[in-house]
Specification:
Blueprint lengths: L9 E3 L2 E3 L2 H9 L6 H6 L7 E2 L4 E5 L5 E5 L2 H5 L3 H4 L5 H17 L5 E8 L2 E10 L2 E8 L8 H16 L4 H16 L3 E7 L6 E8 L10 E2 L6 H9 L2 E4 L7 E4 L22 H8 L5 E9 L2 E10 L7 H43 L4 H6 L2 H7 L4 E6 L2 E6 L7 H10 L8 E4 L2 H4 L12 E6 L6 E6 L4 E5 L25 E5 L8 H68 L5 H30 L7 E4 H18 L2 E4 L6 E4 L1 H17 L7 E9 L5 E7 L32 H11 L4 E6 L3 E6 L16
Parallel strand pairs: 24-26
Antiparallel strand pairs: 1-2, 3-13, 4-5, 4-8, 5-13, 6-7, 7-8, 9-10, 9-15, 10-11, 12-14, 14-15, 16-17, 16-20, 18-19, 19-20, 21-22, 23-25, 26-27, 27-29, 28-29
Helix pairs in contact: 6-7, 6-10, 7-10, 10-12, 10-15, 15-16, 17-18, 18-19
Length: 778
Amino acid sequence: MDRPPVDRALGDDAGWLPEERVRLAEAAVGPSFDLSICLNEPIHQLGGIQSYGALLAVDDTGVVTVASANCGAVLGVSHDELVGSPIEATIGTDGMAAVESTLAAPTGDRGVTVLSVAGTEFDVTVYRSDHYRVLEFEPASTGRPFTFSRFYPSLRATLTRLQSGQGVLDVCATAVAEIRALTGYDRVVAYRFEGRDGPGEVIAESVSDQLDPWLGLWFPATDIPPQARTLYERNWIRVIGDVDDATAALIPPVLAHTGQPLDLSDSTLRTVSGFHLEYLRNIDVASSMSVSLLREGRLWGLIACHGLVPRRLSPEIRAACELFGVMLSLQLAALQDAESALARQRARQALSRLVTALDADIHASVTGNGRLLGELVDADAVALYTDGETTLVTGSPDLVTVEELAVLRRHLPSLDAGRVWSSDFLGGDAPELESLAPAVCGVLALGVSGSDDLIVWLRRERHTARTWATDPAAPVRLGPHGERLTPRGSSAVYRAIVRGHSVPWTTADVAVAEEFGHAVTEVMARQSARLAALNAELSRVNDDLHTFAHVAAHELKEPLRGIANSATFITEDVADTLDSVTVRRLDTIRGLAKRMDELINSLLHFAQLGRAELHREEIDLRQATERALEIAGARLDEQRVTLTLPEPGLMLTADPDRLQEVLINLLVNAAKYAREEEPREIAVGAVTQSSGVYAFFVADNGIGIPGTDQQDALRLFRRLHPRGTHGGGHGAGLAIVDRIVNRHGGRLWLDSAPGVGTTVWFTLVAEPDQGFSHLDRP
């Protein structure tokens, strides 16, 4: 909440305690004054009522158990006579029926009725408390009987003017003027609180000419302690007829079964805390009324009315003010909802564009749309935490560095996808982050895909100058009436700068961030479903490929062998009778059958490479190359190619059989495509990339591959030269090597030029950075 630290009170199960600066302020003004007594005072159990009325509490048997000490003066029957006697003896059978009817009414367990005691009419407020039926008697007001048709027109006109207001300040200005006209108080102000326990600002006022204005003044949170705020949330209205009233004590002072005074939380006549009375006396207030302004059941503000002389309000006027408070609360809520809806509408336009730009890579989507994130929620910077990586999406590093963002992340809560956490007082809500101020004082964090992935909007400190009705550093002084809280006098105001706070996050900010979180979650859910479908399809295709390979191995090869054998048998059996053309054609049939068999073997092997388990182990590259020469060496000797072996001790982790296949294929390929002139050379080795991952190579000075053909060279059965040239073959070698490299998590690429030679590069592990720098030809 946007207030100086001195005004913050700390709450725990033991009660509310003032902060250190408040205690220092107390010590500076003389004898000790324990503000915690005020903050913990049980104001709903003060054991008395205002003396212009009387109270009776009746148990379940109808016997009066508690009576106020002034019953004799108000009702004409002493409390001694009333306690222990049936209530029916005092109010009669009809009165009992009226009480029960009032309590049973659909309006709730509290209502007003009219009862007669010894021939005198009283307005009686009836409610339940501590398993008792409580009756509060007030002398009947003048102008009886009450006629709704006479009262309604003025109330309706008032409510109509209220509903025509265009904004919160406008509506509150109308409200205070109307309530002052209705009640006759000398000052009526509207307070708006910052949070449930925050300070209050006077945002509207209607005041007589003889009083100083309070409009714009701030009043510390300690002026209305937490237990008082709780009662304001429970009761719409609170009236004090005379601050110098002699309290009428309740007899007995405590209940026998609880040992506590009767709970007067719902009382109209409840007596007033001495602290509050001192507060009112020191601003020359003789009577007062407060009307609660609630939003979703929480205290949003107050209409406070002050009179310079004692003033009693009839139940009708109190009911009108209560209705006024209800209607004003609804109107304020509607206005705030309309403002939030407008802000959401503007944000949803950005949200729509942002959601359209989302894809499965949330990190790339967010970092690529920083401007839209800024339109979504107004902030000075936006940061992203995904997969342990911290990114400043928008905003200057002068505001916050990546290192500071990493510190911030350690102290932010873990949030499920779509959940939001916010603070506009980061140093207060997370003291260990106070060092980030004034650069960062506000944080709105949105959970993305997991508990550690967040999108965070950041706001810098906002310097706010406030005019206080007292020095906020010293809220406690000794008053002229003894050790009492001496409150604010408008003749001396104080200006203070609020530090450590950002512009508060609005409900619209939070709502649109939540909507974005839901959109991200939906995109990721759709992507997960799509990936699941693709994986299922891929699994089906792999199964089909495996089935095909099995059929190729066991079904197609047999007919091919039959074709080849038949051609051979014909040649052998009737060779003498065949002409040369027929013999040549039979030889062609045998050659094609053999080629088909080899192609099927290559295809089967290629398919099996995608499914076979890898058994990795540490391998010396030089030793692996020497083993590969046992098979490929004959081809190198045939082409008179010299080989440069890698340095001994160069270790790598790979499946040894698959690595042998890679080296044999690459060595044989290099020998097949050797240049015509000598020397013909091949080198095997490795270099370390900037990522720290080894890049292995088999380099030759052969005929080379044009750049336009290099990708084709990696395709299965793709030969770049006529079939009978360069030693023949089926064009499967490089495709098989690429497949093996991919199965290891690595990648393969070519560096080649015609007439210069070819270097085949490959890695055998996944690399941190898929990009790579140029590697010079070995």
